[in-house]
Amino acid sequence: MASAVRDLELDLDAFEGPFDLLLTLVLKEQLEPAEIDVAGIVVAFVDGLAARDRIDLDACGEFLVLVAALLEIKARQLFPDEGAELSELEPEEAAEELARRLAEYRRMKDAAGWLRERLTAERDRWFRLGPAPLAPRVERRLAPQDPASLAAALAGLAAPPPKVSLSHMALRFPPVAQFLERFRAVLRRRRVFDFDGEVVGLSRVEQAVAFLALLELRKSGEVALAQAGPFSPIRVSCPVKERIPQWTVRSA
Amino acid sequence: MDRPLRLISRDTIAGSPIDALARTIEALLVITSQPLSVEQLAEATEDDAERIETALGLLGERYREGRSGIVLERAAGGYAFRAAREAADACGRLFERPVERGLSQAALETLAIVAYMGPVSRPEIARIRGVAADSTVASLVERGLIAEAGREAGSGGAVRYRATPLFERVFGLDTLAELPRLDDLGEDAAAIRERLLEVAGARAS
User: Fold this and answer.
1) Which of B85, B98, B186 sits opposite A125 (nearest CB)?
2) What is the spatial distance between Cα A227 and Cα B158, in angstroms, rounded to a whole number?
């Protein structure tokens, strides 16, 4: 590729860089031909020619071939169906259609020029630009409310939590052995007694220890316990001695 | 704003209900960032359109170039406040113009097509300009100058775009009808065809 073509620097909307890079990107399908302003490329090339002392005909020829190919690729991409339509037209009709389209574009180009002039003329008009207005909010209508019931509901949440009792930390537990001896003594005097009757007048802790002692005696088989129903008085008695068969020579 | 109201002396209006209405409209225009139509003002003030226009006439007299730093203008089908032109330099030193800054030729041509032919789709814009319009359209949508306006008929139809009220305001238009007539722009097809034939003839000879 001639250096005048290869090194042609482009500054287009869709691409900025040397011409050979643009062609590479198009061939690798990394740049849409439809995005390329071909007229801009031609203007840049002609500007480059004007800056040189002599015209490089080789470069011009090569450039023409490349730009023609680029134009064809772009046209095929832009008008895939219309190309077929146009090819069916008579030369006169095709010229008419081409002229119509050019006229349409020329009008829009002039309109863009008018807009640019307008923009310049209105440059000293400043106004507030802000976000879109807030959307109207739907008002939530509540049923009539009683403030007293709300206050009562909040009062429950506002009440301080009950203080945690630490009184059990100071409790003194009497030894279980004390009650073991006591119950054994009672049983020696009477064969049957009521637990409640023996512990009446004692503190709750002493009653609990006394009950533990009773369970201990039951475990060791020293007493039998009976209760008619839940929370009924606990009756304590000596256990009935099981009849243990005596070993005799005869039985052996 | 050019209403017979201007003939009414300020003395007869000060303290009148119209003056109170004008103050309310003034407040509404201060808090809005886009022009308010007479209908919107009538709805907000719960007053009738004729009285709104009378009050706007009063405000127009009060807020005009040379008299106030704030100017009442008609734009984008409504009324809005803007800075007086004499303050433009100071405004420019403090603020930027994000909407119209760096609008390229491609963007202006696309804007013209959307403003004249909208609602119009991207393929249609590309057909007229001869260049794909995707990035230009996206940039204009981002600036708020054009907006989506439905799709072309049929399933999967292309999105169509129209010019926004912001476009009208930026270009100082009350409505799109204030754009120059298309017939007055460009060459007509016959003239272009003549030129094409001349070029073709010259090449053939």
Assistant:
1) B85
2) 92
